[in-house]
Amino acid sequence: MPALVLLGAQWGDEGKGKATDLLGGSVDYVVRYQGGNNAGHTVVVGDQKYALHLLPSGILSPGCTPVIGNGVVVDPSVLFSELSGLNERGVDTSKLLISGNAHIITPYNVTVDKVTERFLGKRKIGTTGRGIGPTYADKINRVGIRVQDLYDESILTQKVEAALDVKNQMLTKLYNRRAIAVDQVVEELLGYADKLAPYVADTVLVLNQALDDDKVVLFEGGQGTLLDIDHGTYPFVTSSNPTAGGACTGAGVGPTKISRVIGILKAYTTRVGAGPFPTELFDEDGEALRRIGGERGVTTGRDRRCGWFDAVIARYATRVNGLTDFFLTKLDVLTGWEQIPVCVAYEIDGKRVEELPYSQSDFHHAKPVYEMLPGWSEDISKAKSFSELPKNAQAYVKALEEMSGAPISAIGVGPGRDETIEINSFL
Ligand code: GDP
Ligand code: IMO
Ligand code: MG
């Protein structure tokens, strides 16, 4: 069973970083396959807290080779500041591999992200402003810059020219901004070439050879299922495929190689940025979830929108990802509520709907249908096994499992590596 995918089952920030780090000690490779430094993955090891954006969370496990796959978009300035931040804290990052086919987030893509959001005004997506969407747009428009382009100055110059041709028209005529000079961008990008060189590799070959040798490869998703460009709440999504299929295209590994797909699922729901969110709370319960759960963005520092658990979304995540397991996180945050509402279906135009509606308009006015589950007041953060959980916490987990369509194989009861209850082994 060598290849596992670990991904967000909701709108991101489910605790993927912690889960990846937990498995990192037993896997040979951890691979990011999509997204970029829009991600914010928190890993707590002992009394040390790490916030990772672009680097795979496996970078904190000494035996593990971290890989940035072809499907990722790389901002070199962020990459180097993240690497040096880790090096200063004594983390060895020398094993990192980066695909030569990964696309580069150029400075103009960051500018375009910010100006287009401003231009959208009230209709903005609430992006992280890191240039993610424009970089993927360039990739699809075939005017993107790839890591390998940094090693051929003439090609790089032609490509930057092609990309800026249209963008400068747009920036100056539509957005009233100054044009961006080709040579300045080329110079900046070339400045990264030598520093990047030791990491650049044919990661597709490396990963497939590793799988042939029965090495264990873990694919770590950024964002979450409902932020997927195809399967999420479009247009309020990110511009890549965090869903399981994205691991194949974003790393160059065939679907037949993937044996397990683990959905990271928060015991309640959060979302950052704009877009529909049926179980969102605007009362003191929402405020309490935010406070107790520390729900503040790792990347942008924005408060996360909070709401109750939504089983319709969990079932949807099971379906579109072919989930084999769930890792339920932050169960400890729910301690202290007398009763915990769980959304089991929606009401749309007076009708009960059990599955996520494919129509965006329907989803926008879906009202949650709640079932009340009894809460618990005991501290669960020290629990090491399922049987140590209070009866009502056990029942909450079992109810979620039943509603969500895949077994819950691990439960997070705190942010630390060891604050986890393992039910079925992932490896
Ligand atoms: P990611 O983007 O999916 O990696 O998640 P984030 O790191 O953005 O947000 C998850 C937050 O929850 C982080 O602050 C984690 O340290 C924290 N966390 C993860 N699992 C648990 C858990 O089981 N309990 C608690 N209390 N915190 C957790
Ligand atoms: P992790 O990996 C939560 C959201 C943004 C915005 C939308 C598009 O930490 O779970 P983008 O900058 O990607 O074009 O923004 O997606 N978003 C995230 N929300 N967690 C993330 O990553 C996110 N990455 C992007 O807030 O709504
Ligand atoms: Mg996050």
Secondary structure topology:
Elements: E1 3-8, H1 16-24, E2 29-32, E3 41-45, E4 48-52, E5 65-68, E6 73-74, H2 76-88, E7 97-99, E8 103-104, H3 107-120, H4 132-140, H5 153-174, H6 182-196, E9 200-201, H7 203-212, E10 217-220, H8 245-251, E11 258-266, E12 269-271, H9 284-293, E13 305-307, E14 309-310, H10 311-321, E15 325-329, E16 339-348, E17 351-353, H11 360-364, E18 367-374, H12 391-404, E19 408-412, E20 420-422
Helix pairs in contact: 3-4, 5-6
This protein binds guanosine-5'-diphosphate, 6-O-phosphoryl inosine monophosphate and magnesium ion (MG).
Overview in brief:
The chain has 427 residues and is α/β, with parallel strands linked by helices. 33% of the residues lie in helices and 21% in strands. Strand 19 (408-412) and strand 20 (420-422) form a beta hairpin.
Task: Report on this structure.
Its cofactor is Mg(2+). Its main location: cytoplasm. Its EC number is 6.3.4.4. Homodimer. Mg(2+) binds at residues 13, 40. There is one protein chain. By secondary structure, the chain is of the alpha/beta class. The chain folds into three domains: 3-100 and 199-262, Adenylosuccinate Synthetase, subunit A, domain 1 (Adenylosuccinate Synthetase, Chain A, domain 1); 103-194, Orthogonal Bundle (Adenylosuccinate Synthetase, subunit A, domain 2), CATH 1.10.300; 264-422, Adenylosuccinate Synthetase, subunit A, domain 3 (Adenylosuccinate Synthetase, Chain A, domain 3, Alpha-Beta Complex). The protein has twelve helices and 20 strands. It has helices spanning 16-24, 76-88, 107-120, 132-140, 153-174, 182-196, 203-212, 245-251, 284-293, 311-321, 360-364, 391-404; strands at 3-8, 29-32, 41-45, 48-52, 65-68, 73-74, 97-99, 103-104, 200-201, 217-220, 258-266, 269-271, 305-307, 309-310, 325-329, 339-348, 351-353, 367-374, 408-412, 420-422. The strands form five sheets. Strands 9-7-5-2-10-1-11-15-19-20 form a ten-stranded mixed beta sheet, with helices on both faces. Strands 14, 16, 17 and 18 form a four-stranded mixed beta sheet that branches. A hairpin with a 2-residue loop joins β3 and β4 (48-52). The longest helix is centred in the middle third of the chain and has 22 residues, at 153-174. It is globular. The chain starts with a strand and ends in a 5-residue tail after the last strand. The model has no long low-confidence stretch (mean pLDDT 97). The chain binds guanosine-5'-diphosphate, 6-O-phosphoryl inosine monophosphate and magnesium ion. Guanosine-5'-diphosphate binds at residues 8, 12-18, 40-42, 44, 294, 298, 329-330, 332-333, 412-415. Residues 12-13, 39-41, 298 line the site of magnesium ion.
